[in-house]
């Protein structure tokens, strides 16, 4: 896999330089490249307790992204997934530690423990007051003697950093950090492992599986489970977090391990909010990328039992780029639609034959979802199948509220339903099509002519003509041929859809932005949907 890097040997130092450049002057670094990679607060004056952390790179924005007032004083960076050296850690300690002393926050990995531990001993030999806490929040293997350090490290940074910023002494800061470590627990889940720049990617997680309890250095998880949905994934994670969970309110940290979209993370936040432990979650950090594993397609959830002044410390302001904030976790709320958007619906009526016909048409489009998405990925954004399928599901759900016995009103009602449930340009165009067909039917036109009138109106507004490589290329000939029966209409729709595979120039829709080479040999997904629908009608 290609990566946006220059030389593999320089990727960490280049990233540090970029982080500092983007900080607006709040960060600086020690002049020790390439062996000593330490990012510091530019405003640090050694008047308070220093918080020093770090470890291997590849977890960005951790660790350098959390350097700033109210959190970390210095971050010592190693190479990707490799602990920094003793000298690098010592350099960081010496650079920021004054009379108040220094707290080292270290994740529980052998290299980090040894290198930070020895650097602390050497710093003490210089007469500095240095304490250290080891974060071991992983609950994947509850009986493991040396649990790994994961994203709860950030809660330690925030609470200890806020105390230090307020002028607390080293004993107080260390005691608070130890308390957070003792009450924190984290578990992660991923659908795919990460890709280390310059190294081949491991193919460890089969399609349709998710790995539960994996580490942030690509270490295998405790088990692989069948993956079905975000809800099932969150349920599995919560089941690992629940045993031994303390009573009372908690803060949850919802962390993107690097490769999930913002959309997915918001869905996971929704599932966390309605999980079995939601009643104990008072504050939420994220969802955001905070402690990643390069591009791993996964997430982690961390919990910490709130005591004392934790709420104040977690919500205290910081000058840190990567901290997403800590907010009250509240149920989603809604307000009524504005006047004019609540539709006036026709009186529902029953007609079993029409109901069956409509539902089966919708089921045909739902069954075609994956195929149509795959076609659309060649020429658009890969969502035509899902757009039509979601609208079809909504239409099936609403079918018993429709005026099934009055086809004139039914056309209009279907158009109205599509304006609410079907997004994108195709949604509004089909809504126009059905609304105009309903208007034409109300003036006495037969069904085929009414549908043709709807098509003409859709073309007037949308601009698509025959040969423009859209659904029109299948729909127009199908409606023309409908006078000769459904079989003739189906044949015309199929021929029209197949012909779009040889159209290398699209004059409407998203495919109009795609070059000819990508269009060649691929049918338009909208035309293909029409062809499949008429094939069902003719069957």
From TrEMBL:
This is Dihydroxyacetone kinase. InterPro entries: DhaK_dom, DhaL_dom, DhaL_dom_sf, Dihydroxyacetone_Kinase. One of its GO terms (molecular function) is ATP binding. Signal peptide: none annotated. It comes from the Bacteria. Keywords: ATP-binding, Kinase, Nucleotide-binding, Transferase. One of its GO terms (cellular component) is cytosol. The keyword Kinase applies. Residues 352-539 form the DhaL domain. SUPFAM superfamilies: DAK1/DegV-like (SSF82549), DhaL-like (SSF101473). One of its GO terms (biological process) is glycerol catabolic process. Residues 7-323 form the DhaK domain. Transmembrane segments: none annotated. It comes from Jannaschia pohangensis.
């Amino acid at each position: 896999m290609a990566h946006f890097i220059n030389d593999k040997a320089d990727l960490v130092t280049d990233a540090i330089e970029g982080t500092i450049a983007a900080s607006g002057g709040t960060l600086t670094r020690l002049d020790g490249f390439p062996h000593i990679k330490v990012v510091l607060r530019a405003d640090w004056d050694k008047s308070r307790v220093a918080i020093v952390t770090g470890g291997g790179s590849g977890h960005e924005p951790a660790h350098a992204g959390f350097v700033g007032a109210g959190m970390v004083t210095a971050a010592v960076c190693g190479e990707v997934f490799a602990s920094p050296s003793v000298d690098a850690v010592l350099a960081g300690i010496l650079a920021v530690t004054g009379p108040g002393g220094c707290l080292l926050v270290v994740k529980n990995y052998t290299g980090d423990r040894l290198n930070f531990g020895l650097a602390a001993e050497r710093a003490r030999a210089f007469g500095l007051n240095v304490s250290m806490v080891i974060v071991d929040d992983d609950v994947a293997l509850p009986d493991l003697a040396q649990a790994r350090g994961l994203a709860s490290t950030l809660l330690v940074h925030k609470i200890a950093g806020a105390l230090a910023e307020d002028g607390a002494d080293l004993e107080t800061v260390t005691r608070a950090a130890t308390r957070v470590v003792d009450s924190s627990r984290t578990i992660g889940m991923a659908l795919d492992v990460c890709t280390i720049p310059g190294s081949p990617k491991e193919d460890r997680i089969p399609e349709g599986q998710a790995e539960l309890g994996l580490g942030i250095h690509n270490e295998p998880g405790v088990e692989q489970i069948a993956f079905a949905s975000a809800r099932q994934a969150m349920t599995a994670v919560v089941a690992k977090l629940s045993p031994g969970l303390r009573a009372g309110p908690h803060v949850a940290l919802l962390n993107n391990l690097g490769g999930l979209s913002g959309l997915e993370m918001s869905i996971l936040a929704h599932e966390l909010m309605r999980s079995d432990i939601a009643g104990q979650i008072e504050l939420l950090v994220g969802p955001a990328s905070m402690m990643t594993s390069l591009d791993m397609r996964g997430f982690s959830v961390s919990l910490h039992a709130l005591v004392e002044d934790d709420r104040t410390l977690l919500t205290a302001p910081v000058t840190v780029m990567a901290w997403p904030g800590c907010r009250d976790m509240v149920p989603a709320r809604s307000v009524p639609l504005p006047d004019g958007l609540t539709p006036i619906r026709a009186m529902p009526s029953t007609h079993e034959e029409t109901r069956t016909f409509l539902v089966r048409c919708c089921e045909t489009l739902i069954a075609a979802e994956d195929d149509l998405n795959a076609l659309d990925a060649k020429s658009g954004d890969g969502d035509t199948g899902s757009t039509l399928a979601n609208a079809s599901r909504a239409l099936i759900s609403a079918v018993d509220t429709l005026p099934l016995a009055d086809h004139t009103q039914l056309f209009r009602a279907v158009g109205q339903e599509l304006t609410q449930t079907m997004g994108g340009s195709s949604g509004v165009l089909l809504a126009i099509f059905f609304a105009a067909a309903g208007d034409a039917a109300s003036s006495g036109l037969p069904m085929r002519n009414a549908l043709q009138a709807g098509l003409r109106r859709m073309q007037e507004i949308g601009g698509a003509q025959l040969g423009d490589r859209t659904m029109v290329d299948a729909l127009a000939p199908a409606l023309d041929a409908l006078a000769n029966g459904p079989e003739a209409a189906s044949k015309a729709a199929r021929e029209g859809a197949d012909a779009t595979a040889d159209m290398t120039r699209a004059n409407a829709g998203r495919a109009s932005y795609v070059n000819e080479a990508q269009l060649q040999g691929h049918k338009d997904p909208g035309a293909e949907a029409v062809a499949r629908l008429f094939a069902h009608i003719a069957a």
